[in-house]
Design a protein that fits this description.
It is a single chain. This protein is mainly alpha-helical. The chain is built from 8 helices and no strands. It has one domain.
Length: 200
């Protein structure tokens, strides 16, 4: 397995390498709640639109289009904070998570069935459910909800598997690093959520 990873890394294209660097920068800045994370994330996502499409992960390609748009929205929203303050962290009521997941499962059933029957998608169900759940996770992050990191931890595990299986070893490695960063993000935002709120 180690040899496979090393050979995959050696075969990494410059474009994939740039997307990885931007992705790492995005995650680190997001943990610190810096609005510039959205610029790095948006640019990295724009690159991953192409890479995901070539890897026959159409839902991931569509997801990256969404992330690119979220980069604009997230930067705008986090820029509303006055002065040098970072956005205040809060939580989303459990009932809203339940409603969101009911919707995710419904659209996953529809999209995965379509992908399995009408496209050459490699992993219809995993590609679908991870895509729809990522929409929620990205929105939660833009709204500075601590639960975003719980979603990213679970999703990063799925993404490591998907991209590794499709030969994008460098991208899979990136998501493995994201997984570690997400754990630190959860810890940091949990701590921030227990502190007095700053201006948002």
């Amino acid at each position: 397995m180690i040899e496979s990873i090393l050979s995959g890394l050696a075969a990494t294209t410059p474009v994939e390498g740039v997307s990885v660097v931007l992705g790492l920068l995005y995650s680190i800045l997001a943990v610190k709640r810096s609005r510039w994370c959205w610029v790095a994330g948006g640019l990295g996502s724009a690159i991953l639109v192409y890479l995901s499409w070539v890897a026959k992960l159409p839902m991931q390609a569509a997801l990256q289009v969404y992330y690119t748009g979220m980069g604009v929205y997230g930067f705008w929203r986090w820029s509303q904070v006055e002065g040098e303050a970072t956005p205040a962290v809060s939580t989303l009521p459990l009932a809203k998570h339940v409603i969101a997941w009911a919707a995710i499962l419904i659209v996953t059933a529809i999209s995965s069935r379509y992908l399995a029957g009408q496209t050459q998608a490699a992993w219809p169900f995993l590609d679908s459910v991870s895509t729809w759940a990522s929409l929620l996770a990205a929105w939660l992050e833009a709204r500075v909800k601590v639960e975003t990191w719980l979603y990213w931890i679970a999703l990063d595990i799925i993404f490591v598997f998907l991209f590794y299986q499709q030969g994008l070893v460098f991208v899979a490695t990136l998501f493995a690093v994201y997984l570690v960063i997400s754990v630190f993000g959860l810890r940091s935002w949990l701590k921030a959520s227990r502190q007095p709120a700053l201006a948002t």
